[in-house]
Amino acid sequence: MRRGTLRNPTWTLAAFGLAVALAGCGSSEDPNSVNGGQTPVDPNNPSNPTATTTPQTPEEQVKQLLDARKTDYGEALRTASLKLNDELPTLDQIKAIEGAADDAAKKAVYEKAVDAMIADPKFTTVMIKFFKDTYRTGQVGAVQAGMSNKDAAANFSAQVVVEGRSYKELFTATTNTCPTFDATTGAFTPAACAAGPAGGATVGVLTDPGLQAQYFANMAFRRVRFIQETFACQKQPAEYSKTPVAMGNGTFTGAQSFDGITGKKNTPTARIDFQDTSAVICANCHTFANHVAPLFTNFDAKGLLQAASQTQVPIPGTPVSKPEDYQPAAGAYFAWRADKKVTDLTGLGAAIAEDPEVGRCAVNRVWNYALSRGDIVNDLATIPVAVTDGLTKDFNTNGQKLKETIRQVFKSEDFVKF
Fold it and tell me: CA 160 → CA 130, 156, 275, 351, distances in Å?
């Protein structure tokens, strides 16, 4: 079942934006509206408008839909079981809710069932699938000699969730980030990731060989895009200046310096002109990407860290990338955001872990999964801040234990109302 983003009583309806919800409210197919939702409907005689002719505001239309929802713990049980255990509820679970005396009793039975689902070993398998879908990875068959296991990052991420550990460990863990999982026993076996010739520190999933191999590409920009879109839930440009500047045929909106990246303006011999303003302004994205990508250029196509750059520049001859391809030597630096400069991958992981938008992204991905919505970036299934703000605050308060956020979402009013 596909459901839209709904509300909590403490949220203001105006905060919604409501592009998706209003499209449904104003359609001629909406059974609760007349004349595209412009005339209020008499609930006792929906085929005729009431005598009142004052058009409904968008907020009133949405409130009407939200207030019309009914609590259905039986339907919620079915959906939760499929989402949390990948199977339909048992007959005993269904009858337990049906036999409950009233809504309060049904709620208690339902919430106890949710707790049982999260404690079930099948929840672990579901979480591994969740992260495989999120990371778009998956090991097909046995790992070939010399290659990297594409399941390891999802296994580690699921382990962190299932064991009630902090989500921040995805970016800060220094050991055993490539565990194996036995589906028969439902147990993880701790394991370190394979190391390349250059060794290097372990930085959560950021140094996972499987992810590094999956997103290997020219100049490491695909790796940067993966991190930005997956963990911050934002397309590039990653950040915007408060004072955009007109340049050439466009507007420069980057939050970091236009002159801080390589281009023909500051480096006449530049192999790629990231300062090109003849059409789109490349710098809008690259003032972010060029300060992150150099941290990942030494990982090869197998995801193993080498002593020198392994990525190529997409020009004739495909030469190996060099630091000066990204930034002028004078003043070069690494950064997660304009105000978050770092010195290495460990620092990058720490900056990502402390980014409020990364925590919000984690909560929003759980929300969309529970409510059967699409991907935040690829499907534009975005969520207004007001919708999950309470959940995000609780997530940060509880030490970023995503397992508890999952529990909270599946017990929420929005999940049990249809």
Answer: 13, 6, 41, 19
Three-state DSSP state, 188: strand
197 with 227, same domain: the answer is: no
Report pTM.
0.85
pLDDT at 34: 40
Range(s) of the domain holding residue 108:
73-119
* Whole-angstrom distance, CA of residue 91 vs CA of residue 114: 15
Reported as a single tens digit per residue, the pLDDT across 257-277 is: 999 999 999 999 999 999 999
Alpha helices in 9-147 (DSSP H): 19-25, 58-67, 73-85, 91-98, 103-119, 121-135
d(CA 324, CA 32): 61
Q: At residue 341, what are phi and psi to the nearest 5 degrees?
A: -75, 145
Are 219 and 350 within one domain? yes
User: 311 phi and psi, to 5 degrees?
Assistant: -90, 160
Does the residue 97 lie in any domain? yes
> Is 222 found in the same domain as 342?
yes
Residues with Cβ within 8 Å of residue 360, at least 6 apart in sequence: 233, 385, 388, 392
The reply to whether 251 and 344 lie within a common domain is yes
Same domain, 234 and 342: yes
Query: Got the DSSP string for 308-350?
Result: S---B-SSTT-PBP-GGGTS-STT--EEEETTEEESSHHHHHH
Name the domain boundary from 339, 354, 369: 354
Q: Are residues 89 and 25 in the same domain?
A: no
Note the pLDDT tens digit of each residue in 285-317: 999 999 999 999 999 999 999 999 999 999 999
Asked whether residue 145 falls in the same domain as residue 233, the answer is no
Could you tell me which residues are beta bridge partners of residue 4? Answer: none
Specify whether 272 is located in the same domain as 383: no
345/417 Cα distance (integer angstroms): 44
Question: Who's near 25: CB < 8 A, 6+ residues apart?
Answer: 33, 37, 58, 61, 62, 65
Two structure tokens written together for 85: 């255990």
Partner residues linked to 41 by β-bridges: 49
